[in-house]
């Protein structure tokens, strides 16, 4: 999977899907689609440490996501030691996978960078796009990861904010737990033509 990440990172991980043309090889497009189709939620990990370079690369992929008016209203808190991971797990006991995770990334919205007016909540879409890029990059680099929802559940927002010391203008959208998978992951086929409509509902 490492070659997938190398190919895709420079132009944002999802870009090959929109640009499978004469400028890109069919293999590049196939690799990108394979990465998307084979990603799954992984909740059990080995004790193998995640190199800092891998963490940096998944964050680069996250920040390559689309963003309304290029506001980039995202911020990230990386938890990469046992004490920090266990502290977060203690605040949100439902996330048992954190006991095995070798890292976690708290994906946040920076309210100071949001659009004004009706577009304010576009930060949710922007941070969600960043999270999906992060998940795909993690998968491409051989990691397993799972999206743990935080916002808009007030209790979780409060717990995560307290656990990682977030200032008032930073809102946690989700936590992505990561590690090298302890075994093969189940890939779900979610394709359903019945959910597709053309031109009108």
Short description:
This protein is α+β, with helices and mostly antiparallel strands. It has helices at 2-9, 15-18, 26-38, 52-63, 82-91, 122-140, 154-164; strands at residues 74-79, 103-110, 144-149, 170-179.
Protein described:
By secondary structure, this protein is α+β, with helices and mostly antiparallel strands. The chain has helices at 2-9, 15-18, 26-38, 52-63, 82-91, 122-140, 154-164; strands at residues 74-79, 103-110, 144-149, 170-179. A 4-stranded antiparallel sheet has the order 1-2-4-3, with helices on both faces. It is globular, with a radius of gyration of 17 Å. The model is unreliable at 1-19 (pLDDT under 50).
Query: What is the CA-based Rg, rounded?
Result: 17 Å
Average pLDDT figure: 91
Q: How much of the polypeptide forms β-strand, as a percent range? A: 5-15%
Structural class: alpha+beta
